[in-house]
Specification:
Order of helices and strands of chain B: HHEEHEEHEHHHHHHHH
Helix content of chain B: 55-70%
Mean pLDDT of chain A: 84
Largest interface: A-B, 22 and 15 residues
Number of domains of chain A: 2
CATH topology of the largest domain in chain A: Rossmann fold
Shape of chain A: elongated
Strand content of chain A: 25-35%
Number of strands of chain B: 5
Number of helices of chain A: 10
Bound molecules: adenosine-5'-triphosphate, magnesium ion
Structural class of chain B: alpha/beta
Oligomer: heterodimer
Distance between the termini of chain B: 36 Å
Low-confidence stretches of chain A: 288-292
Number of domains of chain B: 2
Largest sheet of chain B: 5 strands, mixed
Helix content of chain A: 25-40%
Number of strands of chain A: 15
């Protein structure tokens, strides 16, 4: 069996709150699996149950074809959403500390090179910038040369340049044949990195598939955007998704749609036409009042 | 400006009143202290301390001297023990009721006065003499100070650190590696043991060298004693921190452990002659045994065998605390 990781009917309850509500999926070897969802959707809770950090209320996690256990930690690399590191240790000392925990480790120089840690190896780990810190945390996740890597929002808080650098890094890891499970809020990130995506909302998986599949499934043609004020109080003969100051119309026939709008005396100032991306899908699935 | 100040004032007040654990602590603690000191010092300090040998219930009448006020009579099982105290001016006279003998240290001012009182009341007692310099307070208090230092360093160094690691997520990050709780905790213990032993040795042998403080026993016995005592206190720190997620609560528990020990473990003053209840309470505290054993070694030249009862109790306490810590230890953290 090629599924490196699979979960069945996973549930996590905190008192009356059900953070994860019976989800199942599996991740094949060599894949990059993306867990997407708005804040509080249950991504971190799910990923921590997969890592074996927290116990599911019910359901099963299988790692490497076996029920998850501490044994699996040797083969798993984990980057938490945010973590403190031991104070007063330099980057090099932190790497050494974590390397000591594992029987098999990746060559240190290779790791330093891969994550570009060279320029601050001897700096106190607390004094790193957000992006440098993120690279160190990733290095710690990779230190045991894991087969499976969990990344919980690895690029949150990074500048666009650092994010792109980080993506390259993740792609380099992928090329080494690692399986990656990552959570993110950034659709462009998921689109770039992930082969397979699950969108979560309120503890459930609301969509599942490759980025292209998802878009095909939910969008036909293109999207026409208008300022919300332009359609205020008008009745129009098609479905619209209203999102704050913007109205979104999905259409396969742009010409006809624009003509209909003009006929309805809608001002076309500010009209945009674009092809849908995962951002649009995300909003469609997890957000905001739909109206006919 | 006032409204901003008031806003922060209100926020801080809410924080304080809503943190139940520290609130209870802030009220309970002063009360406990007041009650504690009431019981220890409620009856006031006596003017003289007299050691009494072979006092039996069989005596129909006690010597007239023993009816006097403001003298505290401390029973001793063995004459040697009492005489040692008299030599060091820690008691003013020793009485042997069976043989109608008394011992006085001629270099002791208090001894001189107490002797006058005794001779006046019971002229039939015969005089014996002991000799010896008074033990300086610095010699007496040094083992107490070392013990206290070990206590703070052990409790806070291990207990606080673990709660902090738990809170800020270091513990969680470590949990995500093959490192086991046992390995983690052992490393904490060993690291703190090393620090504590190093600091204690430097203070002890440093002051011995610089101030020629008393060191009648062997350095080895002292180190063994300090080591066992530190182990017990570190284990206590672990037990206190094994579950807690709140620094405030842990701080409270730590205070609850340290204050009684500072007061009752004879760090600053002797509890000889204190009410039995206080003494048995003191005997339940690890620091009491650490300080007593260290003090017997440095000021009385005791051997390890002679302090073995203290050491055994410390070992027992260590086992108990470690057991509790192992049962309760919690990797999880609130940190996300
Ligand atoms: N220890 C806990 N006790 C109670 N509730 C919790 C706990 N941990 C998480 N929750 C709740 O579970 C839900 C899911 O949280 P989770 O952290 O998994 O979301 P997330 O998808 O990772 O969000 P984000 O994108 O903001 O990181 C949230 O409503 C959160 O408040
Ligand atoms: Mg999260």
């Amino acid at each position: 069996m090629t599924d490196l990781l699979s979960i069945h009917n996973l549930v996590k309850r905190y008192k009356q709150l059900t953070a994860v509500d019976g989800i199942s999926f599996s991740v094949a070897k060599g894949q990059c699996f993306g867990l997407l969802g708005p804040n509080g959707a249950g991504k971190t809770t799910t990923i921590e149950m997969m890592e074996g950090i927290s116990k599911p209320t019910s359901g099963e996690v299988r790692l490497f074809g076996e029920p998850a256990s501490r044994k699996a930690f040797e083969r798993v690399g984990i980057q938490f959403q945010n973590t403190a590191l031991q104070d007063y240790l330099t980057v090099a000392e932190t790497l050494k500390l974590f390397a000591a925990f594992y029987t098999k480790t990746i060559d240190r120089d290779e790791l330093v090179e891969l994550c570009s840690l060279g320029e601050f190896l001897n700096r106190d780990a607390r004094k790193l910038s957000g992006g440098q810190r993120q690279r160190l945390l990733l290095a710690l996740a990779l230190i045991n040369d894991p087969d499976l890597v969990f990344l919980d929002e690895p690029t949150t808080g990074l500048d666009p340049q650092s994010r792109r650098n980080f993506w390259e890094l993740v792609q380099a890891i992928k090329r080494r044949g690692k399986t990656i499970v990552l959570t993110t809020h950034y659709m462009d990130e998921a689109e770039t990195l992930c082969d397979d995506i699950a969108i979560m909302d309120q503890g459930r998986i609301v969509e599942r598939g490759s980025p292209a599949q998802l878009l095909d499934r939910h969008f036909e043609g293109v999207m026409v955007h208008l300022p919300a004020s332009a359609v205020d109080g008008k009745t129009l003969p098609f479905d619209m998704l209203i999102n704050r100051e913007r109205v979104e119309i999905q259409t396969t026939a742009v010409d006809a749609t624009v003509r209909q709008l003009a006929d309805a005396q809608v001002s076309l100032t500010g009209l945009q036409v674009k092809s849908p991306n995962l951002d649009d899908l995300f909003l469609k699935l997890t957000g905001h009042a739909l109206r006919a | 400006m006032m409204s901003r100040l008031l806003a922060v004032f209100n926020a801080r007040n809410k924080e304080f009143w809503r943190d139940r654990s520290s609130l209870a602590w802030n009220f309970a603690f002063p009360f406990l202290l007041v009650f504690g000191f009431y019981f220890i010092f409620g009856q006031g300090m006596p003017m003289f301390k007299v050691g009494v040998i072979s006092e039996h219930d069989a005596y129909i009448s006690r010597p007239a001297f023993m009816q006097l006020s403001h003298i505290q009579f401390v029973p001793y099982e063995e004459l040697d023990q009492a005489l040692n105290r008299a030599r060091r001016h820690q008691i003013d006279l020793v009485l042997d009721l069976d043989r109608q003998l008394y011992w006085v240290n001629e270099e002791s001012r208090n001894g001189y006065v107490a002797e006058r009182l005794l001779v006046n009341a019971d002229p039939e007692f015969n005089r014996r003499v002991v000799q010896g310099e008074p033990i300086r307070y610095v010699d007496w208090v040094l083992p107490g100070i070392i013990g206290m230092n070990i206590m703070f360093s052990s409790l806070f160094g291990v207990g606080y650190a673990i709660v902090r690691y738990r809170k800020n997520g270091v513990l969680k990050r470590l949990k995500a590696t093959p490192l086991s709780a046992f390995e983690f905790v052992s490393a904490q213990i060993l690291s703190r043991l090393l620090t504590v032993m190093l600091v204690a040795s430097i203070i002890y042998f440093g002051s011995h060298w610089a101030l020629s403080t008393l060191m009648l026993g062997s350095a080895f016995s002292l180190l063994v004693t300090l080591f066992i005592g530190a182990l017990a206190l570190i284990s206590l720190g672990l037990a206190v921190a094994s579950r807690s997620r709140s620094e405030e609560l842990t701080g409270g528990l730590m205070n609850m452990a340290t204050w009684p020990m500072m007061g009752l473990s004879q760090v600053w003053f002797s509890l000889e002659g204190a009410p039995p209840m206080v003494q048995s309470l003191a005997n339940a505290l690890p620091l009491t045994h650490l300080v007593s054993a260290a003090r017997e070694i440095t000021t009385e030249g005791a051997s390890l065998m002679q302090v073995s009862d203290h050491l055994l109790i410390l070992v027992g306490m260590t086992a108990l605390f470690l057991g509790v810590a192992a049962l309760l230890f919690n990797w999880d953290s609130d940190h996300r």
